[in-house]
Specification:
The protein is of the alpha+beta class. It has six helices and five strands, in the order ααβαβαααβββ. Helices cover 41% and strands 22% of the residues.
Length: 144
C-alpha cells in the first residue's frame, strides 16, 4: 500500500519524533556489520548481504597464526561456506514465505589447537535496508 503524506505525520503524533536512528550504512562503517555482498553475489544473492561482527568473529575470522596453531584455512574459504549455506537457507525461506531462517554450517573454532570442524547455527534475516530496499543480514541466533 502506498504511503500517504499523512502517515508519517500520524506516526509522529503517536510515537513522537525520532530521537535517534542508527542506519545499516553506519553499522557497516562502524564495523558492527561486515559487508559480504561481493562474495554473496558470487553465491547467487541478488541483494546486499552483511554479517554481524559476532557471527564474523565466530565463523569467518581466521589469521595466519590460527593456521599455524590449528589447521590451514583462510577467511575467503570460511566466508564462502557461511554465505553458500546462507544462500541455501534463503531459498528455503523464500519458498516458505519466511523472512528469516536458522541454518547451520561447519567451521573449525578459533583458539586452542583444535582441527575438527564443529557445527554452529546462524540466522539469516531478510528485511528492509536504510531506504526500504531488500537486504540480508546473517547473525548468531541470539542476535537481533
Amino acid at each position: 500500500m502506498p504511503q500517504t503524506q499523512e502517515q508519517p505525520q500520524r506516526r509522529a503524533e503517536i510515537f513522537g519524533e525520532v530521537i535517534h536512528s542508527y542506519t545499516r550504512a553506519q553499522a557497516i562503517g562502524d564495523g558492527v556489520l561486515v559487508d559480504v555482498s561481493e562474495t554473496a553475489k558470487e553465491a547467487g544473492f541478488r541483494f546486499p548481504v552483511a554479517m554481524t561482527r559476532a557471527a564474523w568473529a565466530d565463523c569467518v575470522e581466521w589469521t595466519d597464526e590460527d593456521s599455524k596453531r590449528q589447521t590451514y584455512q583462510d577467511e575467503a574459504g570460511r566466508l564462502w561456506d557461511v554465505v553458500w549455506m546462507a544462500r541455501l537457507a534463503a531459498q528455503i525461506a523464500a519458498g516458505a514465505g519466511d523472512s528469516q531462517r536458522l541454518y547451520t554450517v561447519y567451521r573449525v573454532p578459533r583458539g586452542g589447537r583444535g582441527v575438527k570442524p564443529r557445527i554452529v547455527a546462524l540466522k539469516l534475516i531478510a528485511g528492509p535496508g536504510d531506504d526500504g530496499e531488500p537486504v540480508i543480514t546473517i547473525m548468531q541466533p541470539d542476535e537481533d
